Amino acid sequence: MRWENLSDGPRRGPADAALFGADAVTTRVFDTPEFAGITFHEIRARSIVNRVPGASRMPFEWTVNPYRGCTHACVYCFARKTHSYLDLDTGLGFDSQIVVKVNAAELLRRQLASPRWHGDHIAMGTNVDCYQRAEGRYRLMPGIIAALRDRGNPFSILTKGTLILRDLDLLRQAAAVTDVGISVSVGFVDEELWRTVEPGTPAPGRRLDAVRTLTEHGIGCGVLMAPVIPFLGDHPDQLRATVRAVAESGATSVTPLVLHLRPGAREWFMAWLGRHHPHLVRRYERLYAEGAYAPKWYQRRVTRQVHELAEEFGIGPTRAGAARRIRVPEAPEPAEGPTQLTLL
């Protein structure tokens, strides 16, 4: 692994220097059923607040990612490619070799207190899920949320993890002093599809229960309907069932985003497709022939259908008096070349 080359001597490259300290890595394997087959690499990061590249279309500039790799094991996850930066496998390795930035909270407090920090919005869960199973053991998010609360720094969280409810009191405290935005990712409610493409995540119904609980406690919560998976999760009946369930959960908004397949994720997803749905391989090759994104006409069609269903089921803007939050932006216009957010 790349960090094994770190030493107190000459640095081997800026990426290595920025990621971890030279004395940083402890590798652990836990003998418990929920972590069977998973290896954790505990590291002391050099920095925790990361600037989003200027070329990105993300609607935020700064992120915090306390983990690398994700036990949610979503077969489509665009973050798989980032594991290759550490010389780790982007397939099973991404699902089972988890990097844990154990000093995330203390490092964040120090960076927020710097005179160079101007209190900009920080987004979390935009690379891998900060409420994946590892969070149940390492408990990094309470310290991170408390640091943001204490500085009154606005932030948002995107997650598939129901563990976010553990931190409900902290989220309410933060929402009282700054803008807090919460979004839960639910691309579909088809449980058969869920079991095969998102095997390590809570069931869609449980995620929507979390939306309901957050909303009932004054934390406005939107749903990122992502990804909408072509030919597997895009039938009008599936879209209707998902938007209906989102509406019933009390979500403040629903934002559809069609599956995109970046390098790293594309190879893993297509291998999975060949095993489970070989009859769809050629259709995917045609649909994604031009690159990572589905054609604009397809994205527009899905977006229009979901927006019409949202109107039908009454998912509207935040009501007066609701908890302050950062609104989930509308899906970017396909003509602009949209970016799918995930975990996802």
List keywords for this structure.
344 residues, alpha/beta, seven-stranded mixed β-sheet, four-stranded mixed β-sheet, 13 helices, disordered N terminus
Structure description:
- This protein has a 7-stranded mixed β-sheet with strand order 3-4-7-8-9-10-11. Strands 1-2-6-5 form a 4-stranded mixed β-sheet.
- It has 344 residues and is of the alpha/beta class.
- The chain has helices at 14-19, 80-83, 92-96, 104-112, 134-138, 141-151, 168-175, 191-197, 204-216, 236-248, 265-276, 281-287, 296-313; strands spanning 26-29, 39-43, 49-51, 62-64, 67-68, 97-101, 122-124, 155-159, 180-185, 221-228, 254-258.
- The two termini are 24 Å apart.
- What portion of residues is helical? 25-40%
Give the low-confidence spans.
3-22, 317-344
DSSP helix count? 13
The radius of gyration is: 20 Å
The secondary structure category is: alpha/beta
Main beta sheet: 7 strands, mixed
Mean pLDDT: 86
Distance between the termini: 24 Å
N-to-C SSE series? HEEEEEHHEHEHHEHEHHEHEHHH
Using DSSP, what is the number of strands?
A: 11
The rough form would be described as globular
> Beta-sheet strand percentage?
5-15%
Q: Give the neighbour order of strands across the main sheet.
A: 3-4-7-8-9-10-11
